[in-house]
Design goal:
Chain lengths: ~270, ~270, ~270, ~270
């Protein structure tokens, strides 16, 4: 096998018997985890020695991720053997995982290219968090969860629009009900919205709540509607997972070659 | 095509290739959104210039919505070609979306017709919020969510009656358990009801909670029952979405005309 | 029809064309509702006139419910025409709804029978709340919700035992983690249990919460487990409602008389 | 029947007609319950007499559990009659329930074997809590709940990883949004994490919440995402319970031996 083939096998995630492939996966996963912990640590007041250590780690990890990114592009033509190598690489570069890989290293290089620091230090740190999505490559189950969410996106969006309508209406109702009694808490409709979010999602921090009879009745209605706000997306996703499960089983059934009627050749189930 | 036909095609939402139709949809959606934002903004302390600007927008948007409403009535006979034009329009006027359209503009015209201001300023603002429901016209997925909710309404109502029984019982139990220990918090059964709502829906603001052993045991039981209060409607809606999904698939199956056994004429599935 | 038959038709709930039957149902439902509102009102500081009015209403409504109870027993033999009248009435008296009817009036008569007041005034009021269950007679959907809950009771009980195990373990863990930092809040394992209930059911009043690193990590784990505590019973009930739905549909299928294989007479589905 | 056979029948949980077996089950369940209550009680300030009483109970219950453990090992060869007795016992000792039984008594004997007290007093108490899992032996429904959770573990893990990604990202976002406004509350990213947990799981204690416009918008988004955090695992488990139900029904169908078409041998259902 060519060097490119070997590299491809090593950097490709999944159940390869190659020891080097497993080590590579572990190193990348460890670097992602440490990279995120490092972003966390930088929000603490750190002694300057640790602070410098984190910076060194930052530089090293970015170089490793850059190398990984370049290797993945180099070997991308093996993913689509039927395409010309250039097009195969272009297709790969535009795929979701490759974009995540690029965004995870880009903020480090931007200040070198641009004459001025376009992004503030904070934004850079937050963009580095995108590295967390590099984990996705290593999970099959996650892919199926994403598939279900994607399939049910229109219904979930519809449910979200309903929630949005409910939020807007209840925020204005509660504002008119409570503004006179608590002018400092329910200052404007935006305060009402904050209350409506906390109530409809059943978070209920307790920083803002109705005290008038009228507001409490409204609060009761909205808290009960909040049950529906949880129940509708859950019902949609439940039906999605069940649909996914049935499809999967149907495909397994097809494999045994006995599911078709001997008379008309139709699938019998 | 006649002018009426062209107007009909433009104002009808959905996947028309007509550029004017798309522009019309966008303008209406933008006006609805801005109209709602305007109701929000009016709850803030605004400089008088912005305040007057909002009023002008209010007048203009109402005129546009009025024109839209009239055009929809004018072209309503094309929706039901089999009916006489007058009846077709009457049927349209009494449909849900047309009523929403009317209610969204009515409060603006009422003071002109009636000799005195029937509705206060606040109520007018709140009724204007109904414009939010005009969004519904533009979503297919929302229709299917509404269908499931409608189908399961008896079961959901039954679940709500159970919740109501639970609320009434727990509000009185907690009142008797906590009234002596916190006479100012658990003043009467209505305070108990407010606590029961916050606990059963798991909102839990923290403005009122039991402090006695007896009240905490009761709170534990009610908080655990609160899980059921979420689980039952969710289960009902889940089964509704799955039923909807299966029906939809069955109908798709029917369309290919090959789902019946040629020997006995039974549906093969 | 005999007088008994007419009375039976009137007091039986459901879709009778008899006007008297509908009036009877409405009167009973109104009396139940007013009876519950009256229990609520008695927790307020009422002027003595209203207080006396409520007492008079209490006496009248109890007499009406007593009459209803006796009429139902009298006509119970028409429910089971195949049994001897005495046995039919005994069967009815021991049914769930009849026991609720009896308990709803019993506390009023007990002091007359017994030489001393066995039950305190409060307990009597609370027992009167049982009248709320008389509503159940008037809902079909509620029956099907109860059926599903009953069917899934073993699984729900198992889930509750898991919740109980989780509650006990987390209450002790949090006690050991937080007792030293907040000895007044986490006084003993019972305080820990109260916190665990509020966290696992996601109520979160905010009267008690961890402040140490160790306690917050524990709180994070338990709050995440709380998702499961909601998800498991919901999943169980979802499957229950779907099972109920399928059974119901199967029974409807049976009615059309075409579901059996012409060759072997087996149900084809 | 030999003595070993009789002992085996007595200590085996389940529907035995043997009176002694039922008594044995009740004694063990009562001892487990009392043992857990005793761990609870020891966190209270107890009079020394009660304290000593609890210690005596502790010693006695441990001896009983030890005897139970030894008897279960002795009779374990009857569980696997096809294996040599020694192997059968080894298999049993390594089973989940036997490990729980051992862990529930081990901390009591360790100080006698080891020259120094390896585990602190607190840890010993907490390990004793494992006795709670001995309850599992007595529930069939629990087994099926466990089976579903086990089956769906990959999907649930994937959902948990998503929650973890969401938690990490929102904790850093909220830290950057709120740190300047509330430096004491949002001290570092760990405080942000604590807030994110409380919001995503909808617990919402109210000890920490955003006050800036930016933070509240972020809080709104995260609270709405929190709905998904509940909905996804619930959907996964719902589909799991439905799958379990269908499998169970299929197996029941198989038992009646009549589910296959006599003509083509295909399952008719």
């Amino acid at each position: 096998m060519s060097i490119k083939g070997k590299v491809f096998e090593i950097i490709q995630p999944g159940d390869s018997d190659h020891v080097a492939s497993k080590i590579f996966d572990c190193v990348i996963i460890a670097l992602i985890a440490m990279s995120i912990i490092s972003v966390f640590l930088q929000t603490f007041d750190l002694p300057s020695r640790l602070s410098r250590g984190l910076y060194v780690f930052e530089v090293v990890s970015t170089y490793v991720f850059t190398l990984e990114y370049l290797l993945r592009i180099w070997t991308a033509d093996l993913l689509h053997p039927d395409m010309p190598p250039f097009r195969a690489r272009l297709v790969y570069i535009r795929s979701g995982m490759a974009v995540v890989d690029l965004l995870a290293i880009l903020p480090f290089y931007l200040p070198m290219i641009l004459p001025f620091n376009l992004l503030g230090l904070r934004a850079v740190r937050l963009v580095r968090l995108l590295r967390i999505f590099k984990f996705n490559r290593y999970s099959d189950a996650m892919t199926s969860v994403w598939l279900v969410i994607k399939k049910k996106l229109p219904a979930i969006t519809a449910a979200l629009v309903m929630v949005f309508i409910l939020l807007v209406m209840s925020s204005l109702f509660i504002y008119f009900a409570e503004h006179d009694a608590q002018p400092d808490k329910f200052e404007n409709a935006f305060s009402g919205l904050w209350w409506a979010v906390a109530t409809l999602t059943t978070v209920g921090y307790g920083d803002i709540y109705p005290i008038t009879i009228c507001g409490k009745i409204l609060g009761t209605v909205i808290a009960l509607l909040g049950i529906g706000v949880v129940a509708i997306p859950t019902g949609i996703l439940s039906s999605g997972f069940i649909e996914h499960l049935n499809k999967h089983e149907d495909e397994e059934d097809k494999d045994d070659g006995m599911n078709f009627c001997p008379h008309c050749g139709r699938k019998l189930k």
